[in-house]
Each structure stands twice: as structure tokens, then as C-alpha cells.
Amino acid sequence: xxxxxxxxxxxxxxxxxxxxxxxxxxxxxxxxxxxxxxxxxxxxxxxxxxxxxxxxxxxxxxxxxxxxxxxxxxxxxxxxxxxxxxxxxxxxxxxxxxxxxxxxxxxxxxxxxxxxxxxxxxxxxxxxxxxxxxxxxxxxxxxxxxxxxxxxxxxxxxxxxxxxxxxxxxxxxxxxxxxxxxxxxxxxxxxxxxxxxxxxxxxxxxxxxxxxxxxxxxxxxxxxxxxx
Length: 228
Fold this sequence. Notes:
By secondary structure, the protein is an alpha+beta fold. The chain is about 40% helix and about 25% strand. Helix 4 crosses helix 5 and helix 7 crosses helix 8.
């Protein structure tokens, strides 16, 4: 990843709830924004660390996860470029409930809490957009819980693979897994062994082929029907 400095004002406009701010307001937010560079495996914050703002991923990929005293890890969310995280906990005056780790070399922006609080006080429209963004993430997490509770392991994996396809296609589609199979398994609430077994079963059924992180969906429509 290039370590070129980020054009902070231009990048802030890509954050959905900053998109309608005036140039003066963007410049003000930029004064409270700091750029961060993380290498693969580097920890951004630990569970229990104090919160002073939220983050926006410019490039790379972040993992939000919790770990048990026994060392078991559960991936809560994978944050891709052009997405933010940490907005909700910023207002709770509580420490982070998860830890954040870079899955690849990653560029981030950290937006300070003080300027966000001021914008909320001054602009009800901004507050509504911020709430809408947090509500969308909450809705997604509720859908995740529903998926884990009501769908079989096979259905979860097929659903995940189909989500990676850019366009619905009757023909074969090639995808590259965005992170390791171990992280994906944790995200789907599976063991790595279960994920490997399901990939094997789907391969035996003639639905996919697997070459490392590269997977070919040989017939996405039939794969979707296999989901049941």
C-alpha cells in the first residue's frame, strides 16, 4: 500500500454523513482529523481502551473482534474501504467493547469526537444522517444474528459467497476472498474445519472450485437454489 498523504478534506466528503457539509465545515472537521497507517496485524485499539472519536477506512481492511480468556476469537465485523466504524460507542462514554486489527496494510482517518458533537448541536440534519448511518449498521447486525440463528452452516457459506459476486450472473463468476478463511469462518460463526468441509462438499457437488483465496462459482443460480 502506498503511504502517500491522504487529501483529508476530499476524503471526508466521501463519508456519507459529511457529504452535505459546507467547505468551511469540512475544513473545520479536517482540523480535528488525523491520518493513521497500520501494517498487517497491527492493533489499532484494544478492548477496554478509551474512545475519542471514530474511524474511516481509506484503504485496506480492519477486523473488529473479541477474544476469550482461553484465546478463542470471534470476528464481529470486517470493515472495508469507504466505511466507518466506532460512531456509536463514541457517544456512550464507555471503552471499546472490541479490539481492532488491520487485516492488510491500512490507511485510516480518525475524526475527533469534539467536532462531531459540535456539528450535532448545530445541525439537526447532520444528526439525522449520523443516526441513519448507525441504524443501517444496527440493522445489518440484527440480520447477522438472524442468519447465525436460523440458517444452517451450508446456507451461511453459500449466502456469503453469493454476496461477493458483483453482478447476478447465470454464468460462472470468479471471486477473491477478501481475507483469510480463518477470519471468514469466525465471521460466519463457524470453525475453520467446518468451512473447509463445506467448501469440499460444494466442490464435490460441482458448484464451486477453490484455489487458495480464489473461488469460482460455476453456476451461481444453482448455488443459490442449493441454499434451500
